[in-house]
């Protein structure tokens, strides 16, 4: 049973390989009547696309999206929205050296074991390139959340390797290729990346992502809790190894008298919860943090085996991100938006429009 | 859309409230022909049940399970296995003081906002008591994984509040109420808990859980990756705020030349991956770590609001775990087992029995 | 992958065997805030239960339902509603003769082939007894549809064997054990059944079921069309071999100028559509007709084989309905209600409340 | 919640509109390692495509399929197979007259009511053109069923309007545009259709579809019975109003001593069951019959209303099939194949390869 569909009511079915003819997705369940154009989607794809700075892969892909269905006279019709992105820069010769051997840290070995056949060109299906359709679908979700519910999802880099990035302001995020919320630290990040590239090595990163304007009431316990679905979506991003909500791992050493966010008639006094209590949104901001491992494709030679189990040494040439975390921010935002729209529709199915029962902590779902 | 079913092929549908007549679950998709008795399930329920030491809630529940269906002449028939646990110790008077106010850190407020109605007796549906049916279902999954695939899932406490618990040996785990893999540290943990109870406060914990014997090939990318489904299951446990696989958050500061596990003809040289590459199991051990927040129900008075939005002070009396993490180990094991059996069946659906293609890193799924 | 869950948003997970300790179901997704008691459910179970006339099985089952969860202070809470019915009359000795042989027309052979193990007591899981939990869940759906949307689902017998039953009036349906909408024909039906029992044989029947008050707009094409889901639900009833919507098989010989229902400002001029156009409800009444095969358990000896493939003669003694169609009416009503509530919630998820765009053909979904 | 995905393990997600840029689908869950080319799919699309005789719509569409993903070096990889068909003959001016009025018997009114917005060009999403992606996906399913399990699905026309078509031989089916299994009757069918076109009217049809080589054991009761899923798939075809399995509606007047198929060591003595007992395949041929209503788009003027509820007269010009049943045979075959492959994978998930327990009625699932 393949698992290429995300969501239950607002579903995204992803297809394609890194070096096949095209990648894309089908969105099913988008509410009708929303204005939607290719430009609405392109703006998010452009934030993720490769080749935008010297710190990311130099593969040249315009990532131009075509809407194939589901939009009529500029509006969504409630029927499936198919999005197509043609692959254009498929220099597959770069990847010839990995046909017979498995790159350490990569999915080469596991795809081979699972399917008995593997598209080795650029990582095939396991390539981070397949986050592009997710980002495209996320753009649709973001637009609906913003226009109908006043919800915004935004992300930023909070650490690059061992360098923590103190949050200064959201405005900084869009002004540097790292999505760092801190303009001052950018030169240091650039130096760090330049040294790393020279070493032929790669590094991890930490990304923060949050949503504001989320009403109380979203989430479907016992199992499809909002935080559980966020954790799944985030851990499903290529290279992610950890997910925290709110206080996260810091809550291990917290006392109950510190962790539990007190409430006042004006709202919550803190946000250790990260916006989720009992698996349901509380009306606080949703705050998430994710750990991204270093890119596995590095120029440094590494020990591995080949298909028949013999020792082999692998060096990866070709075009790779030395820190996949750099382009992860728009991806994490997209996934948070996709989880939220799915839960907004799920909530509406069973409960209809939210009726705010506590006057001072307002929370609405409008169509 | 309610989300009370876990899994896609081996599904668990959970029902019940803390103080209603009964709790339980229906397992659908369990393969036929496996010997199964109530004793097989009871053993896991007994590991989780309350009242077993002075460090956990004193609620008296035998948590006696009854198999209502799906087993004939001592064997599973492939039809739904319904498990029933009657609630017996429902002293609901303990909970009267939370009818009108919302306990900080609890799901009181969010359930109220979501459904407009809330069973306030003992937390109702949001009570950690509802992990019992999950543990019962997990016992069935564990048995199948052990007998048919040679997979074991085991957990332990790795930190209690600020006290790290160095791993010594699995044998220690079952000999103390903390599931600590370190007998020597137990007196210190007991002292710590005694002091905490005296303070009327609570504390967080960190739990490690792992699976051995997992063949390569389990996991369904792009979205239903094995690590993603593990993250969902773990984050879905009451009070969990963070999930790591393998190196987890430590991978942020790792270099690619360190993180990517090298392979040799004898196997992997390390396990930063935590047993998952590209969302598919690699044949390494699956290693997971989760952060559990401190119990929100504490005797210390806290600020909150009531249903009409006025200020209120909340003190929680009654029977509560001062560290919900203490009983979390069998729950985390159960969930890891439930994810693994689901993915084992999903793999088999599409691929049939795994054909091991690399001779030296063997990986099998047998029925 | 077992298929014991019906529906997508209002789901019913069915468990139990004919002669096991209990049967029941878990309803997940019922909207909160609806008054619900065991009496609301019992009334529908009593319409279906055995032993109510000499024309049906004489098995004595009170079919007493217990609500285990999901209702608090008399109202649904939006969490799973578990319903339990204990089996009380399990005279399993009646069924000893079918342990080693397969009854023609029965599921004995196919369950054996599928699972390799089979609960032979009273048909085990394949018994029509398992329609009781479906009827119980249908009672909950019916109540919600009636109270929140003004929808009624009703059925009747339209033919018993070769005897067509002309529709006279709904009032007649509840006054005879056949659910015949025609009091005058009842003596003839009774005679017919008496003769049949004397012959040791059984007979088929045709049941009509319809829904009134259904708004336009329910149904999720392309594949989850309303008529498609109705067909699935109906064909899923034990012994059903055919399903028609509207004109059904008569439409084969109709011309387009006759079949297509003309519209006027006052409404549709006919109902060949059976209330569904393009897979979406039209606001006309939903009309369905189903064919039910004769009971396979008959006293007449029949040729078959045993488990090792040898010839065997099978005679079925014990307690059986000579026409399973007699008790099928409440089952068909329940399933139509379950499909409609599921589609009402699905529609609401994506579209919110229906906005009636044509003033004269009003159609509303109210919570 | 949109319902554009068919199946649970072998899923088909359909997208597109009659006059949009493209139609297509994404298949998820196809087992890896099967040879697959565009030619394998094109052959089935060509059987369904318009313009192949004077008795069907004259719209010119090559229905050329492009495989966008999921196939590498000529073999399926186990990842999603995206299929794209560009629309080329979109003379949308033909359809201008239905922008403001609802055609009787069409989905115009119900789409408008459901979504509040409607792509009126050629029926938009409700067009029978959208069966093309289903047929394309069915070609993949057919190939796998044939090569791995020895299952064949085949269909034929069994009645055109009031003309029954006695079955003579399968060879005849592919030699006439009606898919009639009877060469002798073809001239009469042609005359009938010519007269109908002259009248500006349309007619219904009955289609038979069957599968041979199906092993015992496929089907997932209680609700996802094989017959139930077949009924859903068939009723989901545009214009279908009735579905029968085996004896179908004839079973209403059958006695149990006639209907129940006796078994002998050599196999079943009859096939009233249509190959399904208790919702599980029996090893007999699967036999299905469906009723297709007459096309609603006819030249004869008909009464209707417009969007504001006023009376209107509708005449449909443009290119339409006077009997949609003529092209329905390959569609029904495709859907039967899609249901069977889905159930074959579902069975394998829970049970592994079928173990034949009765030696003389062999039934295998091989990968």
UniProtKB/TrEMBL annotation, chains A, B, C, D:
NADP(+) binds at residues 48, 54. One of its GO terms (biological process) is amino acid biosynthetic process. The lineage of its organism: Bacteria, Pseudomonadati, Pseudomonadota, Betaproteobacteria, Burkholderiales. GO terms for molecular function: chorismate synthase activity; FMN binding. Pfam families: Chorismate_synt. This is Chorismate synthase. It is an enzyme of class 4 (lyase). FMN binds at residues 125-127, 238-239, 278, 293-297, 319. This reaction introduces a second double bond into the aromatic ring system. Keywords: Amino-acid biosynthesis, Aromatic amino acid biosynthesis, FAD, Flavoprotein, FMN, Lyase, NADP.
């Amino acid at each position: 049973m393949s698992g290429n569909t995300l969501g239950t009511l607002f579903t995204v079915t992803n297809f394609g390989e890194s070096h096949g003819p095209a990648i894309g997705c089908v969105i099913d369940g988008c509410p009708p009547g929303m204005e939607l154009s290719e430009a609405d989607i392109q703006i998010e794809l452009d934030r993720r696309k490769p080749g935008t700075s010297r710190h990311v892969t130099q593969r040249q892909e315009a990532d131009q999206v075509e809407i194939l269905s589901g939009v009529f006279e500029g509006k969504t019709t409630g029927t499936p929205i198919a999005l197509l992105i043609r692959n254009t820069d498929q220099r597959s010769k770069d990847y010839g050296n990995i046909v017979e051997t498995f790159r350490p840290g990569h999915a080469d070995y596991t795809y081979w074991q699972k399917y008995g056949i593997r598209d080795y060109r650029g990582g095939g299906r396991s390539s981070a390139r397949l986050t592009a359709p997710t980002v495209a679908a996320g753009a649709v979700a973001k637009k609906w959340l913003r226009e109908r519910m006043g919800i915004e999802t935004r992300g930023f880099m909070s650490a690059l390797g061992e360098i923590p990035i103190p949050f200064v302001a959201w405005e900084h995020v869009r002004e540097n290729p790292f999505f760092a919320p801190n303009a001052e630290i950018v030169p240091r990040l650039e130096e760090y990346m330049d040294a790393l590239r020279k070493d032929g090595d790669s590094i991890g990163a930490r990304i923060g992502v949050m949503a504001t304007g989320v009403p109380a009431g979203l989430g479907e316990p016992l199992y499809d809790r909002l935080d559980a679905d966020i954790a799944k979506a985030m851990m499903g991003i290529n290279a992610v190894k950890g997910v925290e909500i709110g206080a996260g791992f810091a809550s291990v050493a917290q006392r109950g008298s510190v962790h539990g966010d007190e409430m006042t008639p004006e709202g919550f006094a803190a946000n250790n919860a990260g916006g989720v209590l009992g698996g349901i949104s509380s009306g606080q901001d949703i705050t998430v943090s994710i750990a991204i491992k270093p890119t596995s494709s590095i120029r440094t030679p590494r020990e591995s085996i080949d298909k028949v189990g013999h020792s082999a040494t692998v060096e990866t040439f070709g075009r790779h991100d030395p820190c996949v975390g750099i382009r992860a921010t728009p991806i994490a935002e997209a996934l948070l938006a996709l989880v939220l729209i799915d839960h907004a529709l799920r909530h509406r199915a069973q409960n209809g429009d939210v009726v705010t029962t506590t006057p001072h902590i307002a929370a609405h779902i409008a169509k």
